[in-house]
Design goal:
Helix content is 3%, strand content 45%. By secondary structure, it is mainly beta. The chain starts with 20 loop residues before the first strand and ends in a 14-residue tail after the last strand. The strands form three sheets. A 16-stranded parallel sheet has the order 11-13-16-19-21-23-26-29-32-35-38-40-42-45-48-51, with no helix packed on it. Strands 22-24-27-30-33-36-39-37-34-31-28-25 form a twelve-stranded parallel β-barrel. A nine-stranded antiparallel sheet has the order 1-3-4-9-6-7-8-5-2, with no helix packed on it. The longest helix is centred in the N-terminal third of the chain and has 13 residues, at 172-184. It is globular. Strand 6 and strand 7 form a beta hairpin.
Length: 655
């Protein structure tokens, strides 16, 4: 809306339902603690609390040496009424002896969760807990009373009126002047009216506690060989997450002009480093050259919402670029805006409701990758990454390429005609000289269709020295993968569950496991695949149960090498349709330990298909086989078992 002189200022009219405030009292200590000092501040829709607590009770130590855990997650204090975050926040605490993790619940209760070192928190030791979050919320907090403030600047509102918005004048200096005013006042709201803003003096620099809004009809047009927007100055030196944060960027079309003369070198649109509490929403970024539409480097508590990332140009050697890159401050090669290069990683990043595809501009393509990373540092991970309800169309490689990520949720996304869907990988030792285990990923409820064969629609990739551990792949639909790819593939993985997925029309195997141990493959539907329905290679301790497999080119279930396998209660219809030599269930090549129970095999009834239900070679040992239903195949040798001394049941034979 347009602000008129004489219009009274309220937080509601500013669309910021939190009143600016500062308090130093009201913090309630838990039993065994006392308050040494407390400050709470609200400014421009952000809240910060700073608590210094003294331990008066018994010493607090690790629950067991070296675990980092604290028994019972002891309470420290409760924030004053109205000062709690809207959702649970993970924060850090520190003392002169140790440090660790803490949690602030939406009730305001502060609890310790973990501890480092062996010193603990002895009686008399002080602990500092500092946290900040975006406090703007539709339900609001405590509203200011109306005031007689009638100027933009007095209200913390910086309406950009000095820019021409005609697409010809360089409007960057006028916009930067308002961003600088917000900085000088400790924060503010910079609003860009409708218009086309040529930006030839770049980069624009946005600072802490600033909200930048492009109103409907506002268009930024990059007109310099530079990043468009950067959060800070080239000479700053804010380490970890202490840089210019508490930033909200929203609205508008951002034209990067990747094919314009002088603008074809690799550059970024929005580049953010060493910061926390960032929101980007409702932006449309078009035709980016080389690097990324949004770079999130060494940041935490980041939300990218309801935005569109359209069009990309590879200037050469950038066929792995992501529209949104999640990166760490390893060197200027990782992040060119400013230092320090202290290896700070990203933590708590969510991308929701966004769209990734081509722009339709002649000479551009869709992005190689929608969201991802391609660099890592030993001992560090990008953690708590959530990718939800996004739409990926035509990405040349992956919709999501997670490299050295832990604690990942990929849920409810749609992937259409991309090279592949989701790729999670440990660091590549051949590329970086190290690898390491990565932990905890859930890929659930996604739809992937018309993949074009760059890689498997879902691939979890470890190495011999670095494993992907604790993986859940559930409730996904995969339809039509070409180019010789599997539907779901795990390599060098441990502790996984593949459950309730539908895999249709893949050019290789439906589900493929290589050196993937201690897992279960249960209740999946696999049909119309070119090779095997479900395959294990060099995998141990795997349960494959209650799957429905229809019409496979070779074998329904297939195992080579490995062992400790159990096939139980699977229904297989039609196998060997490529050349008629396959089996409903087949094991060979030194499988040691295989239990085959309660499975059912039926011919599909037409075409060139196998008549043998079970085939076991002489190199398969320690077989237990009973209760399988293979009758009615019209073949007296429906079971071809050459394994030495199998433990059988009479119900496993018959024509």
């Amino acid at each position: 809306m347009q602000w008129l002189n004489g219009l009274k200022i309220t937080p509601e009219r500013l669309m910021d339902n939190t009143a600016d405030d500062t308090i130093t009292s009201g913090l309630i200590p838990a039993t065994g603690w006392s308050v040494s000092s407390f400050t709470g501040k609200r400014l421009g829709g952000f809240t910060e609390v700073n608590m210094l607590m003294t331990r008066t009770g018994a010493d607090i130590t690790e629950s067991a040496a070296g675990t980092g855990n604290i028994i019972g997650e002891p309470e420290v204090c409760t924030l004053p009424a109205g000062w709690a975050p809207s959702d649970t926040r993970d924060v850090l605490w520190g003392s002169s002896l140790s440090d660790g993790g803490a949690m602030i619940a939406n009730s305001g209760v502060v609890q310790l969760r973990s501890i480092s070192g062996s010193s603990g928190i002895p009686t008399g030791n002080t602990v500092r807990i500092v946290a900040s979050w975006i406090s703007e919320t539709p339900s609001g907090r405590v509203a200011d009373e109306e005031t007689d403030i009638t100027s933009y600047s007095d209200a913390g509102l910086y309406w950009v009126t000095g820019a021409a918005g005609d697409g010809t004048t360089d409007d960057a200096p006028a916009i930067q002047a308002q961003l600088d005013k917000a900085l000088s006042q400790g924060g503010g709201w910079v609003i860009i009216p409708p218009g086309t803003y040529k930006l030839a003096t770049l980069p624009l620099r946005i600072y802490r506690n600033t909200r930048l809004t492009l109103l409907p009809g506002a268009i930024f047009v990059r007109a310099a060989n530079s990043t468009l927007l950067l959060n800070g100055d080239a000479d700053q030196n804010f380490g970890a997450y202490s840089g210019h944060g508490n930033i909200l960027i929203e609205g508008g079309r951002w034209e990067m002009q990747a094919l314009a003369s002088g603008l074809t070198a690799s550059r970024m649109c929005i580049s953010l480093g060493h910061a926390e509490n960032i929101i980007i929403r409702n932006v449309e970024i078009r035709d980016t050259p080389g690097f990324h539409a949004v770079e999130v480097n060494a940041c935490r508590h980041v939300r990218i919402q309801d935005s569109r990332f359209l069009g990309y140009v590879d200037p050469g050697g950038r066929d792995l670029s992501e529209a949104i890159q999640i990166d760490l401050a390893g060197s200027s090669d990782h992040f060119g805006g400013f230092g320090p290069y202290d290896n700070t990683h990203c933590y708590d990043v969510a991308v929701t409701g966004c769209h990734f595809s081509s722009s339709g501009t002649p000479g551009t393509t869709a992005w190689p990758r929608g969201i991802g990373s391609h660099a890592a540092v030993s001992g560090l991970f990008h953690e708590r990454i959530r990718i939800e309800n996004n739409d990926f169309s035509g990405c040349i490689q992956y919709a999501v390429g997670g490299y050295s990520w832990s604690d990942v949720v990929i849920v409810g996304n749609t992937v259409q005609a991309c090279g592949a869907g989701f790729w999670l990988r440990v660091p590549d030792v051949a590329r970086g000289g190290f690898t390491q285990d990565c932990f905890n990923a859930a890929i659930t409820g996604n739809v992937i269709y018309s993949s074009v064969g760059y890689d498997d629609p879902i691939i979890i990739q470890g190495e011999t020295g670095g494993r992907m551990r604790r993986i859940t792949i559930a409730g996904n639909t995969i339809d039509a993968s070409v180019g010789g790819q599997n539907g779901i593939r795990l390599q060098y993985a441990e502790e996984y569950a593949i459950t309730g997925n539908t895999v249709h029309d893949c050019a290789s195997s439906g589900i493929s496991l290589f050196d993937a141990n201690d897992g279960s493959v249960v209740g999946n539907k696999v049909d119309q695949v070119t090779v095997h329905g479900i395959m294990t290679d060099t995998s141990t301790n795997v349960l494959i149960a209650a799957n429905h497999i229809s019409v496979c080119g070779t074998n329904g279930l297939y195992a080579i090498r490995g062992g400790g396998l159990k096939w139980d209660g699977n229904l297989i219809r039609g196998a060997g349709r490529t050349d008629g030599t396959g089996f409903g269930m087949r094991a060979s090549t030194s499988v040691v330990g295989l239990t085959i129970t309660n499975n059912t095999y039926r011919k599909f009834g037409s075409g060139n298909e196998a008549v043998n239900a079970i085939g076991l070679t002489s190199s398969v040992s320690n077989v237990r086989r009973f209760g399988n239903d293979v009758l009615g195949q019209g073949n007296p040798t429906a079971i071809v078992d050459s394994s030495p001394t199998p433990n059988l049941s009479p119900y496993d034979t018959g024509a």
